[in-house]
C-alpha cells in the first residue's frame, strides 16, 4: 500500500485528490509554481515542494522537476489529475523507469488511445461500432477527396493527434473538401507536429455520451453508467449530468457492454472514459477514449456512491476494484455546472483577479469542488475553471430545481464569472425538457 503520493497538479482536482488520500491514510505531497505559493492545494497537503516559475512549461509540465520532487520526498506514486501530464506517455514511462507508480494506465495504452486513428482501427477490430469512415491514415488532400466523394457529404476531417476540436473541419460538399482538409492538417501540424488525418461521415446534432469505466490489473472491468456532456461551448463542456435522458435501460446496457469491450480490447488498467456520439435514431459510435480521470467525474460519484479517485489508487496498488458490476447501481440524478472566472459578455475572456466575497452553497445533495477562498488571487497562468457545483436528487427535474436554487445562492465577487450564464442555461425550457445536443448553446444563444 502507498504511504505517500505526490499530486502533479493544481486547483480543485489537486485538492480533491489530497482529500481522497487523507481519507485513505496516505500522506500527500503538493507541488506548486511560484504563482501558487498561496494556493489551497499547497496549503492542504502534508508537504509542498516549489517546482518552478508560474509558466506551466517550467513547473507543472516539467517532468524532471516533478520526478526530483517525488524522489526527494520519498513518495511512491504520482497522481497526475487531468490536463498537464495526465495523458503524456513519456511521463508515464519516465515514472516507470524511476520506479514510481504513475496512477493511470501504462505508457503503451496512453499512446494507443492518444492516436485517434489508431484507436479507431483498434475498436473496429474489437467489434466496437465507430462512425463510418477511413480505417487507414490519410495524409493527402487529393486522396482524401476521393474517399470523401465516395462516402458522401457532409464529412468531418479529424487530426489523428487531435481531440477537443483542434485540427477538425466539417466539410459540407465536394467543392470545399481540399481547402478544409488542408486547413485542418495545417492546424494539426502546428499544434501537434503530426500530419496524420482521418475522415468520418458527419453525424448531425449528436449527443455526447461518455461511459465511465474502471479496469484493474486482475482483468476485472466494470462500467459506472454514462454522463451526458452535450452542453458545451466551443468544445468546452459547461454542464454534465448522469444519467442521460436520451438513454433507456436497454441502450444503457448495450452501450455499457460496448464500453467494457473497448477497454478490454486494449488491456486497459485504471479509470477511463469511452466517449460515444449518439445520433437521433439511437445509433451510437465510439469517438475517443480518455485515459485520465475527468473534470466531470463527480456526477458519476454522486449517482453511484463510489469514489473514483480511491478506486484509481486501489488499482494502482494492484488491488481489485472494490465492487462487481452487479453491485453498481445508478441512483437518482446528478448535474455538474462548471464555474469559470471569465466574462461571458466579452467572448468568455478569462478574468483573473482576487476573490473579494465568497459564499458557497450547501445542503442535502450539494457538493462543491473548488480551490478558491476569500482573498485568494487567481493567477492568470492557468485554466479559468475555479469551481464545480454538483447536485444530486431523486430525478432530473428535482436535480435541476436544486441546481437553480444552489446557483442562486452562490456568491463569487471580485472577478467576472459565468454563474449568471449557467443560471440561464439551467432555467432554459429546452434544457429542462431534455431536448439537448452538442449544438444546444450555439442554437439557443448564438455562441
Ligand atoms: C464528430 C461529430 C459528428 N460526426 N464526429 C468534437 C470533438 C471531437 N472529440 C469530436 N467531435 C465531434 N466529432 C462525427 N463523425 C461532432 C463532433 C462535435 C462534438 C462532439 C462532442 C461534443 C461536442 C461537439 C461539438 C461539435 C462537434
Describe this structure in words.
The protein has an 8-stranded antiparallel beta sheet with strand order 13-12-9-10-11-14-21-19, sandwiched between helices. A 5-stranded parallel beta sheet has the order 3-2-1-4-5. Strands 7-6-8 form a 3-stranded antiparallel beta sheet. It is built from 15 helices and 22 strands. The longest helix has 17 residues, at 249-265. It has helices spanning 11-23, 40-44, 63-73, 89-97, 107-114, 116-126, 141-151, 177-192, 249-265, 297-304, 308-316, 396-409, 419-427, 429-433, 440-445; strands at residues 4-7, 27-33, 47-52, 77-79, 101-102, 155-163, 166-171, 197-201, 207-215, 221-233, 236-242, 270-278, 284-290, 333-340, 342-343, 349-350, 353-354, 357-359, 366-370, 377-378, 385-393, 411-413. By secondary structure, it is α+β, with helices and mostly antiparallel strands. Strand 6 and strand 7 (166-171) form a beta hairpin. Bound molecules: ligand MV4.
